[in-house]
Amino acid sequence: MNSHMVMFEEEFKQITVVCERLTKEANAKVVFLVDKNGQLIASAGETDNLDTTSLASLTAGNIAATGGLAKLLGEKEFSILFHEGEKDNLHISIVASRVILVVIFDDRSSLGLVRLRVKKASEELARIFDSLSQKVEDPSNGTPFAEITDDDIDSLFSE
């Protein structure tokens, strides 16, 4: 997928449902999905006291730095990262080589449960992003820009 992602409302709703379900099933505090440029796509859970914008960009930076380490070791990438803290833990995974799924959890959950639930959610998200990619590549699917002509753009800016 290219660096600019087009998101349709239908797929956004599906992604949000997956994130919300993962939050409940993994007994996580927060789940969020980020593109590799650090833009927040969706979030679920206790996000009120979090700077999700900073978390999203720092997570993407973490993935980029770890990608550099992987290349030095002859690996393509490290698709799963885990950070253990005193109170909270981070489980970070790359989904379908496109987006980053982050799960923040505490001692109410376990790494094993999170990994199990993330695997299922990642498969669902991969299907959604595959569908989205096909929709964007096929102009007959009615992308929001398909009906805009050069004349429409000219008339918009000539007024």
Describe the 3D structure.
The chain is of the alpha+beta class. It has a single domain, classed as 2-Layer Sandwich (Beta-Lactamase), CATH 3.30.450. It is 47% helix and 19% strand. The chain is built from four helices and five strands, in the order H-E-E-H-E-E-E-H-H. It has a five-stranded antiparallel beta sheet with strand order 2-1-5-4-3, with helices on both faces. Strand 4 (89-95) and strand 5 form a beta hairpin. The termini are far apart.
Number of domains: 1
Cα distance spanning the termini:
36 Å
What integer is the average pLDDT? 88
Tell me the series of helices and strands, N- to C-terminal: HEEHEEEHH
Structural class: alpha+beta
Cα-based radius of gyration, to the nearest Å: 18 Å
Task: Describe how the helices and strands are arranged.
Blueprint: H1 9-25, E1 30-35, E2 40-45, H2 52-72, E3 80-84, E4 89-95, E5 99-105, H3 111-137, H4 150-158
Antiparallel strand pairs: 1-2, 1-5, 3-4, 4-5
Helix pairs in contact: 1-3
Summarize the structure.
With 159 residues, the protein is an alpha+beta fold. The protein has four helices and five strands.
Features:
159 residues; Beta-Lactamase; 4 helices
